[in-house]
Every structure is written in C-alpha cells, then in structure tokens.
Amino acid sequence: MQRVVVIGLGIFGFNIVKELYENGFEVIAVDKGKDAVQRVRDCSTKAILADGTDKEIMEAIGIQEDDCVIISFGEDLAAATLITLHLRQMKVKTIIVKAPNEEHKLILEKVGATEVMIPEKEIAHKVAKSLISPNVIDYLPLSDDYMIFEMAPPNSFLGKTIAQLQLRSRYHIEVIAIRDIVFDKIHMVPGAEFVIKDGEILVVIGKEKDIQLIK
Predict the structure, then answer these.
(1) What ranges do the domains of the chain cover?
(2) 210: pLDDT strictly greater than 80
(3) Residue 28 — φ and ψ, nearest 5°?
(4) Phi-psi bin for 3: left (phi > 0), alpha (psi -120 to 50), beta?
(5) 66 or 74, greater pLDDT
(6) Domain spanning 131-211: which CATH class is it, in words?
(7) What angle do CA 58, 62, 68 make, to 5 degrees?
(8) Can you give the pLDDT at residue 182?
(9) Per-residue confidence (pLDDT) for residue 100, from 0 to 100
(10) How far apart are CA 166 and CA 164, in angstroms?
(11) How far apart are CA 122 and CA 180, in angstroms?
(12) Pairwise CA distance, residues 115 & 95, whole Å
C-alpha cells in the first residue's frame, strides 16, 4: 500500500492523517508545531516535529518518489508553493495540495502540484446540491454532463419495481447498483423486477438536471 506523508496538521491535515491511518495506510505526519505533532502521535505511523519548508529535513525524513505527499497549509501560499517545488525536485510523483481559492490553485499547479483541492468550495457545492436535490447523498462526476449519484429513493419509489418506475424513459437515468444499508449488501445491476424498499440506496448514472426532476 502506498505510503502517505501529510505536511501541515491543522484541522484538515489532522483528519486526513486519522482517516488514512484508521484504514490501514502507513502515514507520516509532519508539522513544526509541537502541540499538533503531539496530538497526532496516536493516530499516525510516525509523527515528526519539523519545518516542512526545509528541503534538507524533507530529504532526511526519507520521502520517496512513489510516496503520496499531502500539503495542508491553509492560507500560507508561500509555504505550500516552496514545499511543492522541493517535492518536484525530489521527483515525488503524487503531490496533493490544499488551497483556499482558485488563484492559489493555479499557482500551485504551475509549480508542480498534481492535484489541488479547495475543500471549502467542494463543501459549499455539496451543500448546495443537497438543497437542490434533497434525495442525493453523494455523487461522483464522470464528465461535464454525466455523474454517478447515490440517492435515497423518494417515497414514490418504494414498493415499486425498476420496470414500473420507468427510470430510463422518464428520467434518462440507469440504476447500476442498489445498496441495502440494513443488511450491508449490494446488488449490482439489479433486474427490472427488483422491488425498491425503504433502507436502500440507489446508485444511478445520469445527468444532474435529470436527477433534479426526481421527487
């Protein structure tokens, strides 16, 4: 399993470390704040008190080309940019950086970040979607038009078969799986006679504008 190095242990960085470590990843946590490092000791493989902008220290830690490095510095663009440059010089292939806005994202991409996240923007987008389409639990963009959605079936779906709902003709969507959250089972590509029940999650593929029509 790929090793992950997280530099910067604020709220975002700490939670990334904790989540990955609990799911079996080898996670190296780095921060120049003693309290931040102390807090993450029990939920990381190794917690290191160090300045992430110091290239010699990063080399001494033993960061390798195949490591995934996540940089989480909030508004400190200078620090994030400098570390990204150093990692590129060290030939690290996967550099994920947290940025506060689109302008910072462009700069970080220019200096070599392989992926830049804007968590606040993504959260705002999800909150807006949850209000626009209340049944949608989560989604994964596939292209500009199509997405995979996880959605709770509305009451009008319960007790009906997929054939009766006519999802393809009425909404132009396809059900690719159904997840039973009560019995922790998943039914892949359910047939036309599958009856939708309470306590199930539909995994569908389609366009966002069509999903919004489902009531």
Answers:
(1) 4-119, 131-211
(2) yes
(3) -100, 120
(4) beta
(5) 66
(6) alpha beta
(7) 80
(8) 81
(9) 86
(10) 5
(11) 27
(12) 7
Position of tokens 């996240």? 117
Take residue 157 and report the two structure tokens written for it.
């779906």
Report pLDDT for 31.
95
Q: In Å, what is the CA distance from 90 to each residue of 29, 95, 213? A: 18, 11, 50
Tokens representing 202 are: 């539909």
- Lookup: tokens for 89: 């010089």
Sequence-separated (6 or more) residues with CB below 8 Å from residue 126: none
pLDDT over 80 at 97, yes or no: yes
Quick one: how many helices (H) and strands (E) in the chain? 9, 11
Q: Tell me the residue length of the chain.
A: 215
Q: Is 178 helix (H, G, I), strand (E, B) or coil?
A: strand
Q: Count of CB atoms within 10 A of residue 135's CB?
A: 17
- Of all residues in the chain, what percent carry a pLDDT higher than 70? 91
Return the residue matching tokens 């009906």: 160
Band of the pLDDT at 16, cuts 50, 70, 90? very high
As a whole number of angstroms, the distance between CA 11 and CA 9 comes to 7
Do residues 9 and 29 lie in contact, with contact meaning Cβ atoms separated by under 8 Å?
Answer: yes
Sequence-distant (6+) residues with CB within 8 A of 120 are: 100
pTM: 0.65
CA–CA gap between residue 212 and residue 69 (Å, rounded): 37
The CATH number fitting domain 4-119, selected from 1.10.3660.10, 3.40.605.10, 3.40.50.720, 3.20.20.450: 3.40.50.720
Rounded to whole angstroms, the Cα distance separating 176 from 10 reads 38
